[in-house]
Specification:
Blueprint (H helix, E strand, L loop, with lengths): L5 E3 L1 H7 L12 E3 L8 H14 L10 E5 L5 E4 L3 E4 L3 E3 L19 E12 L9 E4 L4 E6 L2 E10 L7 H15 L4 E2 L5 E9 L6 E4 L5 E5 L5 H16 L19
Parallel strand pairs: 6-14
Antiparallel strand pairs: 1-2, 3-4, 4-5, 7-10, 7-11, 7-12, 8-9, 9-10, 13-14
């Protein structure tokens, strides 16, 4: 994928992350020096500002009840009734599958729930420099400016809220065991739980649906943030009748057509 990784001894890992708990035992580490940490929440807020500057209309808290394709596809909203558009892109995450009105509606899209906790950094010297992934627990700890975020606890098929407190406790414990004293949980702490959806082959659905005028941008799994801009570029080209810059044949929603 063009990203070079380097195998590190524990001593080399601690040189890169000197705040790592001295009592934490591990075999080795892998460093991806070209990788970086992104704040997707901040990115979304900045994107919102750019959209508003360009004249876009954003409607928050507006449930979509139904979707109808055609030369002028329509979405039926609870508050504003039917709205018509030139094209419609369904990118509603775990809720998007409920709007698919073609043969894909019965597609087994798996929901995987995950949790994150963000808090202010209490002592910068005790916090990680960048991002650390505990591979055994599949928990990531990332530093973003003056805050630190710990994420993980992926659970398949359960409903939101189930085991949420247990998962949060695990995240707290992992952060404390890896970087003790790094976070201040007494103020402005943010917790989040959400679902990602996966297709049967774990690849996203990006492209035209079987419904005229309706396009899909779904099932990115845990890589939604990573793939967001690339998927948007692909869809913009396809909607405008241009070939995509990459091979998207394996991403076509029609690959699951029965």
């Amino acid at each position: 994928m063009g990203s070079a990784g380097k195998l590190l001894t524990p001593a080399e890992v601690r040189k890169l992350e000197p705040a790592l708990n001295t009592h934490l035992a591990f075999h080795s580490g892998v460093c991806f020096a070209q990788d970086a940490v992104g704040n997707c929440r901040q990115f979304a807020h900045l994107l919102k500002e750019k959209l508003l500057e360009s004249g876009a209309e954003l409607h928050f808290g507006t449930p979509v009840m139904a979707l109808t394709g055609g030369p002028r596809p329509q979405i039926q909203t609870r508050d504003q009734g039917a709205l018509s558009f030139d094209q419609v892109v369904v990118c509603a995450g775990a809720s998007g599958a409920d709007l698919i009105v073609t043969g894909l509606k019965q597609l087994a899209l798996a929901r995987v729930w995950s949790t994150s906790v963000s808090a202010q950094i209490r002592e910068p010297l005790n916090a990680p420099h960048s991002a650390v992934l505990d591979w055994n627990q599949q928990i990531s700890i990332g530093r973003m400016g003056a805050r630190i975020r710990v994420s993980g606890g992926a659970t398949l098929g359960r409903q939101p809220g189930q085991d949420h407190n247990t998962t949060q406790k695990q995240l707290f414990q992992t952060l404390q065991s890896h970087f003790p004293g790094a976070a201040d949980f007494s103020r402005s702490m943010q917790t989040w739980q959400g679902a990602s959806i996966f297709s049967p082959d774990a690849l996203p659905l990006v492209g035209a649906s079987e419904t005229p005028g309706v396009w899909l941008n779904l099932a990115h799994g845990h890589n939604g943030w990573s793939m967001a801009c690339g998927a948007a570029r692909v869809l913009a080209d396809l909607i405008n009748g241009k070939p995509a810059e990459i091979d998207v044949s394996k991403l076509k929603p029609s690959r699951f057509k029965s």
